């Protein structure tokens, strides 16, 4: 009798040992779904990293314009020339600015209900921005890829002959290949008050 019980237990153990083909296929399906989700996460994080890099460059360009305008004496007639990686020369003229609310240069948002109130109005056509108050800055990365940034600024007189408020905005360019147009990019806007 003990032998019969042992045989039944042995045969049960042999049948329960290992995984069936269906169990293995279900495990592989779950693993594939998990790896697919992980791949999507990696691709999304790479795209976000690239976008953050472009936003940082836009911030640095707006800051550069503010620093260059602030460094100029408002009463001096000189201008500063900047050269981008494509060899384009952009001139920032010395200016005292004009009084509030419009200032001198690119148009400012005048809708108080807008979250961008007081910032540069990018609905203004590029050709309508006065000369010396905008540039299409070309940035080159080590791989040779180029990105164009639309940079605009406005200078407003705070105290005649000495103090100015400089508003500068930059965003990734217009063309669909440059991240503008089809790929909306929120402009980075910086303001500073500088005196001479």
Rg estimate, integer Å: 31 Å
Distance between termini?
A: 108 Å
Secondary structure category: alpha+beta
Helix content: 25-40%
Shape: elongated
Low-confidence parts, pLDDT < 50 over ≥5 residues?
A: 175-182
The profile of the biggest β sheet is: 5 strands, antiparallel
Strand proportion, as a percent range, falls in 25-35%
Rounded mean pLDDT is 82
Topology order in helix (H) and strand (E) letters: HHEEEEEEE
Helix run count:
2
Number of strands: 7
Structural features:
single chain, 196 residues, alpha+beta, five-stranded antiparallel beta sheet, two-stranded antiparallel ribbon, 2 helices, 34% helix
SSE order and pairing:
Blueprint: H1 2-16, H2 21-71, E1 79-83, E2 89-93, E3 104-105, E4 134-140, E5 146-159, E6 163-172, E7 188-195
Antiparallel strand pairs: 1-2, 3-5, 4-5, 5-6, 6-7
Give a concise summary.
The chain is of the alpha+beta class.
Describe this structure in words.
The chain has 196 residues and is of the alpha+beta class. It contains two helices and seven strands. It is elongated. Strands 3, 4, 5, 6 and 7 form a five-stranded antiparallel sheet that branches. Strands 1-2 form a two-stranded antiparallel sheet.
């Amino acid at each position: 009798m003990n032998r019969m019980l042992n045989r039944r237990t042995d045969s049960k153990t042999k049948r329960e040992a290992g995984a069936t083909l269906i169990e293995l296929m279900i495990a592989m399906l779950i693993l594939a779904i998990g790896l697919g989700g992980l791949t999507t996460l990696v691709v999304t994080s790479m795209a976000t990293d690239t976008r953050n890099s472009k936003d940082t460059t836009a911030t640095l360009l707006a800051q550069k314009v503010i620093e260059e305008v602030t460094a100029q004496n408002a009463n001096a007639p000189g201008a500063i020339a900047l050269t981008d990686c494509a060899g384009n020369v952009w001139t920032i003229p010395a200016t005292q600015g004009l009084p509030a609310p419009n200032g001198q240069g690119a148009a400012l948002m005048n809708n108080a209900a807008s979250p961008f109130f007081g910032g540069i109005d990018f609905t203004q056509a590029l050709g309508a921005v006065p000369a010396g108050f905008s540039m299409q800055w070309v940035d080159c990365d080590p791989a040779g890829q180029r990105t164009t940034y639309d940079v605009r600024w406005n200078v407003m007189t705070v105290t005649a002959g000495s103090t100015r408020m400089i508003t500068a905005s930059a965003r990734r360019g217009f063309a669909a290949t440059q991240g503008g147009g089809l790929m909306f990019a929120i402009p980075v806007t910086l303001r500073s008050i500088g005196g001479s």
